[in-house]
Each structure stands twice: as structure tokens, then as C-alpha cells.
Amino acid sequence: MSYSKNDAVVETEPTTPPTQNDSTVLFGKYELGELLGVGASAKVYHATRVADGGSVAVKAVSKRNIASNCHAANVEREISVTRRLRHHPNIINLLEVLATKTKIYLVMEFAAGGELFQKVAHGGRLTDDVARKYFRQLISAVKHCHSAGVYHRDLKLDNLLLDDDGNLQVSDFGLSAVKNQIRPDGLLHTVCGTPAYVAPEILAKKGYNGATVDVWSCGVVLFALTAGFLPFNDYNITVLYRKIYRGQFRFPKWISCGLRNLISRLLDVNPETRITVDEIMQDPWFNSGGYKLNRVLVEEPEWEKSQIKIKTLNAFDLISFSTGLDMSGLFVNNGVLNHVERFVLREKVERILEKVDEVAKGTNLTVTRNEKCEGARLEGQDGNLVALVLVYRLTDELVVVEVKSIGKMNCNPNFMSCLMDNGHNSLEF
User: What are the start and end residues of every segment in region (Disordered) (predicted)?
Assistant: First the structure.
């Protein structure tokens, strides 16, 4: 999956305007078909790839709807997080992001099997073996998320999809959280989630651990799969929350002792004693018949990578550097990338990197370089990432230097002026 500027973000209108009787073709690539669902700020369509006739799902998000509320942050987070979690077999894959003047399109894998919710709603409770299969795949996906520092916070049957082979796919990361959102007390504080699946510690509004609330939601899902109904349900939202806070639910008579034990540990109202993901994978019911975890390497966020080889820029890259077309906010983690400076130098790459070393020494920064890449990682005395310096080739004589500041520290003016050699050989973008 690629997010290169050449094909991931395009600022143009669809080739065919939408009409009632005529399908819309996006960028000559995807022909929109059946409307699959409607959300607060987005519509999801089944679409067909023009090139090969394959199926994809396209989430169309109106910029007008997200411009003035929290939905904008949700869209940014969904793109950034799903990109980080790509390649796991049980997490929906974001294939491409496209944009017009009015909409953002998220092109995703198409889950032909629909929502797991529909399977339970139409067929009733599942057998232990079928439920175990889905629950194992859910825990595999959740473990992968947590290892990448991502907490879904809205796991529910509606967000669990099934692919062509009937395998589970976790979707909708719009309410997810990442580690840099954790406050100094070590907890998350945003109240979010779906009422019937929300953990009691979220209701307490005193902060919570993202991993434990995901485990609680997994417990609600497992109960629903094997019982055929939700453990906590009431038309009165106050009564519902009281039941959740107190952990008041009843097992149907057909739930086995081993399964009751696991669900009870999942739905433990005390997050400190609630079962962990690693402990779930050691549970006898979970391991019945044998189980092998899918191990997938976690994608390192782009802003953390230092092995970026020098690249020859094309016209599209130069245009995309314009702030008016800059959509980089959709591809970085919230709160991480604060400031970007770019300028052109008539200088050799090695000399630029030597200059970075010289300037960094004078500002008490540590520089880490890699011989296989044209860039440097600058760290403060506490070992935290402060900035990335990346070099792109413009012509045989000219290069573009990009300085990205990280966290709360903006690019130091002295550092910038020294690096540009007082402006004699530079042209700032």
C-alpha cells in the first residue's frame, strides 16, 4: 500500500458528475455503485476498479461536514492509524486516499461478507467453534493494534466485517486513540464509544487505559456472539449505564462453564484485575483445539523513519509542497508534526549533512544518520525526536532540503539560518 504524492492525493474533480441514473467514476479509477451505509459525515459505497473489475469500498467524506466539528480529527486519525496497521489479515486495509475540492475519498478493501452484526441478527447465536474463530481473529487484530500503540475504542459487531472467505476484518478507526494522546497521568480521558459496548471506567470520567477498554468491548462482542443478544441493553440510557457500571448481566443457560469464566474476566468492572490480551490467549476456552497467532510486523510511522533514500522530485511533488494543496495533516499523527520548512540549495548532499552535524552540535542536539539514506534524525538530550532533515534532488546541481520539527518544538530560526548558509545559496519555498 502506497501513499506517494503521485497517486494517493489528487486535487481534481471526478471525471463524471454524479447523476441519478448514471454512475460516478472517480479519477478514472473507481466506478461507484451501491450505497452500503450512511454515517454522520460520510457515505460508503461499493465500487468497481475500472482497470480490472475488482471490488473496493469507498468512503466519501464531505469536507463541508467535517470542517467545523470533531469529524475532521476522526477522519485524519482513521487515515493515519489504518495506514500504520496495514497488512494485518484481520484489519481492513486502506488502499488509497483521493481528494476533490469538496470531498475526501478513502478507498478500502471490500468486505463482501458484510457486518458480523447481520450474521448474528439473522442467524441468532453462533456455535462455540464459529464464535471462537471470530474471537481469535478479533484478539489477533487487537493485539496488533496495541503493539502499534493504537486503541480502537469503538469495537462492536457493526465494525467487524467479513471478507470473501468469511474471515473477520476490524474497521472504522475514527474514534481510535494513539499513545501520544495519553495524558501525563498515563490515561486517556475522551469519553467515546457505543453505549452498549462502553467500559465502566469510561463512564466514571476519571481517565482510562485504552487497552483495557478494548478488552471490555471484546467481552461484549464474545457474549453477543455466543448468547445471541447483548449483555447490557436497556431503552433507558441511564439504566443501561448503571448496569454497565455495576457489571449486571446474566448468562443464558447454554453458555459453558469455560466460556462463562472467560467472559466474566473480560467483563470485570475493575480494569486493574480485568484479563489482558496476553492472558486471553492463554485461556483454555480460547485455546481449545489449538491456536497459532498471526504475527505481523508493526508499520513504523513515517515521521519516525530515518531510512529515506534521496528522491528526485517531479513537477507534482513541487506543486504539492504548496501550502494550499498540503494534505500532510491527513498522513501524520495528531500532535506530532508541528512545523515544516523547505528551501532549495545549490550544494552537495554530503556537505548539507555535514552542516547539519555542525549546527546540531551548537544547539546540543544529537544527530543520527544512516549511510543508505539522505537524511538525519535530530534528538534532544532526553532522547526524544526533535526534527527530521530530509534531502530531495531537484536537478544535478540543486536539492530541496525539508526540515520537519516534531512535538512541541518548532524549527529553531538560528538552526534554519545556519543550515541555509545565511541565505546566500538558498531559495526558500
Answer: 1-22
